[in-house]
Amino acid sequence: MRQSLDNVGFEGSVLVIKNGKTYLNYATANKTDTSYLINSVQKFITGAAIMKAVQEGKLSLNDSLAKFYPTVPGANQVTILNLLQMTSGLTIDKALGTKPFISDKKNLEYAIKNTKFDEKMLGKASYSTLNYVFLSNILSDVYHMSYQKLITKSFINKLKLRHTAFSWANNKTLKKIDFVLGQQQLSSNGKFVTQKLDLNEIHGELGAGSLLMDNKDLSKCVKYILAGNYLSKSSIKALYNLDNSANISYSGGFYIHNTYFGSNGGDNGYYTFLRTSKDAKTVIIAQTNKVRGNFYELRSVMDQLMVALQK
Predict the structure, then answer these.
(1) What is the pairing mode between strands 13-18 and 211-213?
(2) Which residues does the UniProt record annotate as the domain Beta-lactamase-related (predicted)?
(3) Which of 9, 76, 239, 281 could form a disulfide linkage to 252, CB 3.0–4.6 angstroms apart?
């Protein structure tokens, strides 16, 4: 397994859990408890929080987006489930978030104003972070607190996550969680250039790419959501299509494969790859802050490793 990742030039932190036991926990650069920007991998936490709200009767999967944001184009046709499954037909062709960042409310207004709806794509899979930006704001509406406060209460404090913070945390916190800045390799000379976090855009992505986490904390969230007491069995079944009642490839922040779920993040000089069995007993997490432009190659290697690990 190490060899497979070494062969594609992976440098970072790797955690492998097999049948509930730590199988590998190593770092070829940084440390095993280094925190990285997890980018889109955060969507599985937001997706689960939405399902929790459904379970608590604060929301329905069939609620239309118009119930919350009636001025979004197509809002009366798009449901919460469409947003969770990336089948809304909604897109935005601008970077998310105002420059400079003012507030989550202003970012929501900006997103609504710039959203486009393609009715022909309603019900068809088309990945757009915008879906999870709307879901993050809906969570804030139904719980009457900011998305950050909700996630801090429900996950960071509840699970005692020691190496997790939002990207805009102060320097003292960043140091405490062993956060490292991302690095991008230049194609011209092969040198790595340190990337500064674009906090305006990261604020704009809110529940879809703003968390810093280490591998252990990520694995705790996976276990809590899929095999803990956060969601009921019926909620898990509905969120991740466990009965195969719908022909979907993505839901609740995870790509749905036959025997496992997958999630990938890449931006700002980071790659995060997460693979988990549906019972969270077998998990692979690999994170790096040395980006070489081989995201799709690494994604494929992670899929192969997960299949091999489950044999």
Answers:
(1) unpaired
(2) 13-295
(3) 239
DSSP state of 79: B
Q: Which of 5, 26, 9, 1 is nearest to 192 (CA)?
A: 9
Say if CB 42 and CB 129 are below 8 A apart. no
Q: Which residue has the tokens 């790096």?
A: 288
The whole-number pLDDT of residue 251 equals 98
Residue 308 amino acid letter: A
Q: Which domain holds residue 67?
A: 2-309
Across all residues in the chain, what is the average pLDDT?
A: 97
Q: What is the pLDDT of residue 244?
A: 81
Q: What is the CATH number of the domain that holds 259?
A: 3.40.710.10
- Once rounded to an integer, what is the mean pLDDT over residues 248-262? 97
Q: Which of 28, 39, 115, 87 is nearest to 241 (CA)?
A: 87
pLDDT band at 297 (very low <50, low <70, confident <90, very high): very high
CA pair distance 146, 131, nearest whole angstrom: 18
What does the pLDDT read at residue 242?
86
Q: Structural domain tally of the chain? A: 1
Phi/psi for 168 (5° steps) reads -90, 15
**How confident is the model over 72-107, as pLDDT tens digits?**
999 999 999 999 999 999 999 999 999 999 999 999
3-state secondary structure (DSSP) of residue 286: strand
The span from the CA of 28 to the CA of 189, in Å, is 23
